[in-house]
Design goal:
Blueprint: E1 9-12, H1 18-29, E2 33-38, H2 41-53, E3 57-62, H3 68-82, E4 89-92, H4 115-143, E5 146-153, H5 154-158, H6 164-184, E6 189-196, H7 219-224, H8 229-234, H9 240-250, E7 262-265
Family: Belongs to the short-chain dehydrogenases/reductases (SDR) family.
Keywords: Oxidoreductase
GO molecular function: oxidoreductase activity, acting on the CH-OH group of donors, NAD or NADP as acceptor
Length: 272
């Protein structure tokens, strides 16, 4: 299916590894100039160089997206380096889960979670999404259209014990996205959300989510697969490439009439 993304410009937050890296690579393969955002310079630079080596166009955009002033400055610099005046596509991919406690690696219940940890989760999962949208919307409106795709978690659609603050933050992304989809439909700006479950990628050092884990060598992974209907047949968890196809579709004109929606790319973990 032809996506007609050539000569577009996309900004991907958290683009230095995992899902974000895959998105950057796949956008570039479609002829998109990519602003690769990451908090860590070496990650952003590495992905940008990887794209360039394949003949694509990419610019590293290093900043803490929870700091609006730093974000604004980095965005302006990246646009200038790319020779662009605005971005056509924003993917809000960066996010953070609560820190797990030593006892079995289980995330804390709400009453046991330090308030400072609340702020970390809310700042990146909520405020950073709002900041990035505030940054790109004026340019999209002047250009006559644009696409915003935000990555949330199924915890935000269904709620999950041990992830109360995270669930609330991810649910906020959905409500916010629906509202700006209504506000900016007249500007031909589509705003949608992708909801994820567990994802296996190269940025995870070890355990059930490591790409080398299999049901045969990891008992926890074997148990996790039972929660994802399609995973039982595929015998694996979601991978970045499973997500990328859905995001690129929503970022294309093939999805011109899709806005204010949440699509679960989670193997049936939540069905609504």
């Amino acid at each position: 299916m032809e996506l007609n993304l050539q000569d577009k410009t996309a900004m991907v937050t958290g683009g230095g590894q995992g899902v974000g890296r895959r998105l950057c690579l796949d956008f570039a393969a479609e002829g998109v100039t990519v602003l690769v955002n990451d908090l860590f310079a070496e990650r952003a630079q590495k992905v940008a160089e990887e794209i360039q080596a394949l003949g694509g166009k990419a610019v590293p955009m290093v900043c803490d997206i929870t700091d609006y002033d730093a974000l604004e400055a980095a965005f302006a610099g990246a646009l200038k380096a790319a020779g662009r005046e605005h971005v056509d596509i924003l993917v809000n991919n960066a996010g953070v889960t609560p820190e797990r406690r030593a006892k079995g690696g289980i995330p804390p219940q709400f009453l046991d979670m330090p308030m400072d940890d609340w702020r970390k989760v809310v700042d990146l999962n909520v405020y950073a999404v709002m900041y990035c949208c505030r940054l790109v919307l004026p340019g999209m409106r002047v250009a006559g259209g644009g696409k915003i795709v935000s990555i949330m978690s199924e915890a935000g659609r269904a709620g999950e014990a041990g992830l109360a603050v995270y669930s609330g933050a991810k649910a906020a992304i959905l409500g916010f996205s629906k509202a700006i989809a209504q506000e900016h439909g007249r500007d031909r700006i589509n705003v949608n959300v992708i909801a994820l479950g567990a994802v296996s990628h190269e940025g995870i050092a070890n355990g059930a989510l490591h790409p080398d884990a299999t049901p045969e060598n990891n008992e926890r992974l074997k148990k996790m697969l039972r929660a994802y209907p399609i995973a039982r047949g595929l015998e694996r968890l979601c991978r970045p490439e499973d997500i990328s196809g859905a995001v690129l579709y929503l970022a294309s004109d093939r999805a011109a009439y899709v806005t204010g929606q949440s699509l679960g790319v989670s193997g049936g973990f939540v069905m609504i």
